[in-house]
Amino acid sequence: MKSKEQLEVEIKNYDSKGYGFYKNIKGSYKFDGYILSFDHIQGDPYASPSRIRVIVNQSKAKFPSELFDEKYKKIALVNFIAKVFNDNINKNSLNRSGSGKSGMLTIDKGSQQLLDRTAIYVDENNLEARLEVGLPANGRRISGRSFIKIFFEMLPTIVRNSLYYNNIDQKKLIKQVRLSEDQNYIRSQLKKIGLISFIANGSILPRESGVSSKPLKTNVSPFESPKSLAIEINLPNKGIIKGMGIKKGITLIVGGGYHGKSTLLNAIELGVYNHTEGDGREYVITLDDAVKIRAEDGRRVEKVNVTPFINNLPGKKDTTNFSTENASGSTSQAANIIESIEIGTSLLLIDEDTSATNFMIRDERMQRLVSGDKEPITPFISRVKSLYEQFDLSTILVIGGSGDYFDVADTVIMLDEYKLIDVTNEAKDIAKEIKCNVLNKSDQLNMHCYNRKISKSTFAYDSGKAKVKTFGLNQIGYDKTNIDLNYVEQLVDESQTRTIAMIIEYIKDKELFNKSLKENVDIIYEEINYKGLESISKFKGHPGNLAMPRKYEIAAALNRFRRLKIK
């Protein structure tokens, strides 16, 4: 390991020389209180930025082990430090000048959802920050003066104010770790007390705008549970907290347009993640295997057993191994449900506004005109009860236009100007008074979908070496094929998407073929839990921009891969 003085001498010697001389600084250097490691050096100022690590020994960092002795605590700590580091970059960054990405310094700071991410690594020995930096240049020549300012003036200040426990807001960090502990406790208790979701009184559910995840600050009504659905939970740190408990079974969220139905469902669907302090949804906690289901016109479906919902197709087409290059809204929604069950969900979340009408319901008049033997679609209303009774699969539905669902609902919640009212009894009375001919099929459902084995031909490529790239949150490119994740609504962070892309490469490289799609996802999760998220990365240095997706989003990406071949 070299000293920082040696690095300074090297850079001064390379000043104004060709950019390629930067390759010579790869390695580790001892600074005052930390080690600076250059793991990857970009080949050009316009290329992907260089990757570096800042490593601080815990004898100097002094983060108490009780703040990261459980996985959920470590996740809270990692996200907190990453945000602090990013804030200090913004406070101390110099005016960028030079060519390409010169002077850029970034860390994967995360979002309001607390995810297992690789930007910060912590254990009892070391604390490590993993960064991307644009090594400075004038044209394509090294800018030694700017390099000295970044690494000998700016970075030491950022490190000192971010990676040393004595220099950060300790109370705020402890508060976030304790909040995460309370959130984790609620989630661990849900199934034990027969709940699928909990929303605390006082929660702020509306967002600032349709493109912002920040809470609305003006003209907002804090959440308040109907008394009939109110429960108390005694948390390890906060103590007794009150709110609405949604029980297992079939729950309807009803009300007029613009009264907050979809806002409530959106909070519930993102309740699979823990949230940071100030998000407004800190105590909105949902079973972590809940999956949002919607129609997805045009998606590809590969050998999925859709018979519970699609059968008796013209021409006697088989639906136990159904495939299509261009699914309709109803077919895609049916496939989305079966694929989620395949991976192991116990809770479906559905909004009428993003569903196919003919998949959700067929009214009595249409049933009379088009007889059952002429209609291949069995609507969800005819299956939702059986899904719960036979598979313990609960459903939360936002419904604004079909009171027929009153017949199958266990709980009905109405929103009136963002205020919640338990109208279960009224809905049941209406169902008795106004009879509907809802066909609740109670036959034993064939949901078997576990033998969908991935074929090796899935990962063939056109020419050369197949490249897997990500384009923002919702797009993955494999060779010349695009994986569209726009309708995978519980994917919340671009770093999750990068991880999914690496997982696809991992499956290809490890040749995890002749195993079911579910087995592949389970194997990868086991690998990550044992070796860490870094284990799936092909990059020899640090993968500092990865965040853990759920199994359901990994499977969703594989199922939307248009090259997917199932045996």
Summarize the structure.
This protein is α+β, with helices and mostly antiparallel strands and 567 residues long.
Describe the protein's architecture and organization:
It is a single chain. Helices cover 30% and strands 22% of the residues. It is an alpha+beta fold. β1, α1 and β2 (27-31) form a beta-alpha-beta unit. The chain is globular.
Which secondary structure elements does this structure contain, and how are they paired or packed?
Blueprint: E1 2-3, H1 4-14, E2 27-31, E3 34-40, E4 50-57, H2 58-61, H3 71-92, E5 105-106, E6 113-114, E7 120-122, E8 126-133, E9 137-138, E10 141-142, H4 144-162, H5 170-190, E11 195-200, E12 207-209, E13 212-215, E14 230-235, E15 239-247, E16 250-255, H6 261-269, E17 274-275, E18 284-286, E19 290-293, E20 301-304, E21 322-324, H7 329-343, E22 347-351, H8 357-360, H9 364-369, H10 384-391, E23 394-398, E24 411-416, E25 419-422, H11 424-433, E26 468-470, E27 475-478, E28 481-484, H12 494-510, H13 517-531, H14 551-559
Parallel strand pairs: 1-2, 16-23, 16-24, 19-22, 22-23
Antiparallel strand pairs: 2-3, 3-4, 4-8, 5-8, 6-17, 7-8, 9-10, 11-15, 11-18, 12-13, 14-15, 20-21, 24-25, 26-27, 27-28
Helix pairs in contact: 1-4, 3-4, 3-5, 7-14, 13-14
